[in-house]
Write a structure and sequence with these properties.
Blueprint lengths: L2 E11 L6 E11 L4 E9 L13 H32 L11
Length: 99
Amino acid sequence: MTTFTWTVRELERITADGRVINVAYRIIAGDATNTVDFDGDINLDGEVTTPYEDLTEEMVVGWLLDYLGEEQKNNDEGLLQWRLDQLANPVKSKGLPWT
């Protein structure tokens, strides 16, 4: 079974008023054997009005998932699942037969 973990890597904000304008995030997918990840970011254009010091990671991940929408979330997690499946059942390999 694959576990998907969405985390916030960094927030960019306007220092004058604390408005968050960009969220850099990472999705980590793991199963019993392998782990893969994907980094992305979204531009919020200052839409967030919650004071910077009051933000929590859970709150920002919620915004991120709302911004991306269910279809994009499923696409991103599907890509990571595909990568895990490729690691578990490779269709290509590299090497030398004499080593």
